[in-house]
Amino acid sequence: MRYLNLEYLLLRVYDIFSGVDAGNIPGWIASLAGIIVITGIILTLILLALIVYANIRLVQVQHEGYQRFEEKLRSAQTQGTKNIGKNERWERIILLADSPSQSDWRRAILEADIMLGDVLDNQGYAGPVVGDQLKMANPLQMTTLDLAWKAHKMRNDIAHEGEVLQLTERDVRATIDYYRRVFEEFLAI
Fold it and tell me: Does Transmembrane helix count among this protein's keywords (predicted)?
């Protein structure tokens, strides 16, 4: 046999089933087949109804979850707007960053990194140092993760190079802005 003739095969299957005479089938087999067909139809309809119900319920649960999330976000934003200017730690960092002294700039970045460690710790990111906490962070849960890494890298440069590292006002402003955006995401300021 070089090829498969599907038309012939289907014709033979049709001949087998079309040649069956209903008069030759015992009554109990015919009634059993009828019961199986009816049971199958009923089960299919029940399962179809359950699938539709499950999909509707899933949409309802998702909608309720989004509503709760939006309520929490609104309340956190409301509290955040009430607390603007009241985070003394952040205000002190801003004052140090606005200073004309490079040593104050270094201190501002170091203090901001310590504050970042505390914020990450409060958010549940475990680790003995900020770098380990950032490694544990998920970019899907923390949208400012790249900014946090950039700011932390500047902190590491300051910590390792000390006074040798020449900071520019632009570098300090950018780094403090990175920290600010991270803190705003977590409603820390």
Answer: yes
